[in-house]
Amino acid sequence: MKAIVLFGSPGSGKGTQAKLLTECLGIPHVSTGEMLREGVRRGIGVTPKTAAKMQAGILVKDEVVEAMVEERLSQPDAANGFVLDGYPRTLAQAEHLTGWLGKRHIGEVVIHLAVDYNVIIARLTGRRECPRCGTPYNVVLRPPKVDELCDLDGEKLVRREDDREEVIRARLDAYDRQTCPVLEYLRNNGGRVIEVNASNDPPEAVYQRIRQALENR
Ligand code: ADP
């Protein structure tokens, strides 16, 4: 059973690493941000109040994400493990998760992606994504071959609604105030924490570091 928690600030590359990990390990990627955005797109299970919080870059209510994650982790495809991305993000969520795992005698492994502040800003402000296939780009750090178009399917790239400067500031602020303490909590709770420097190297190199640390366990 592999319960992996990817931990890091917005723009630390959690989503990218989660995708690499899930492809390789054959376990699902559980991203609360993705689940919430999907809910907004389909108009299911996300209240206007929750959607407004997401747009403003502030955290949605604990109970909303806790219920969502619990439901997701109970699906058959998560029976052998999962990669959590963007959860837990508050102490209450962390307590909820460790309680849930504890009851099932599952120990979590936390991967902390540590990234310098200026790198985070560059990544978030330049981030684009293909609305059709989800391939991520960055206009400065990883530009597409043709300006603003996806290399794979030619679709016009889009910017996530919450990647505007004032919203980025709110998200980083929420991370500092509400999410940072979660790492300490998980460490003290007996979870294994793997520290990974994810500032400078391409995603594949960061991924190799994670794999090595997981194998040395
Ligand atoms: P980020 O790049 O900021 O890590 P995410 O895609 O993980 O973005 O989340 C987008 C938004 O969804 C957050 O700003 C927040 O409003 C909401 N959200 C996602 N996960 C959580 C969570 N665990 N607790 C509360 N709100 C969340």
Q: Indicate the percent of residues in helices.
A: 40-55%
Roughly how many Å apart are the termini? 14 Å
Oligomer type: single chain
Main β-sheet, in a few words?
5 strands, parallel
Helical segment count: 8
Shape: globular
> Which strands sit side by side, in order, in the main sheet?
2-3-1-4-7
pLDDT averaged over residues? 94
**Rg, Å, rounded:** 17 Å
Class from helix and strand fractions: alpha/beta
Count of DSSP E strands? 7
Beta-strand percentage? 15-25%
The arrangement of helices and strands along the chain is EHEHHHEHEHEEHEH
Q: Cofactors and ligands present?
A: adenosine-5'-diphosphate
Report low-confidence residues grouped into runs of 5 or more: none
Give keywords.
alpha/beta, two-stranded antiparallel sheet, 15% strand, 8 helices, binds adenosine-5'-diphosphate, 7 strands, 217 residues
Give a quick summary of the entry.
By secondary structure, this protein is α/β, with parallel strands linked by helices.
Could you give the topology of this structure?
Elements: E1 2-7, H1 14-25, E2 29-31, H2 32-42, H3 48-56, H4 62-73, E3 81-85, H5 91-103, E4 108-114, H6 117-126, E5 127-129, E6 136-138, H7 165-188, E7 192-197, H8 203-215
The chain binds adenosine-5'-diphosphate.
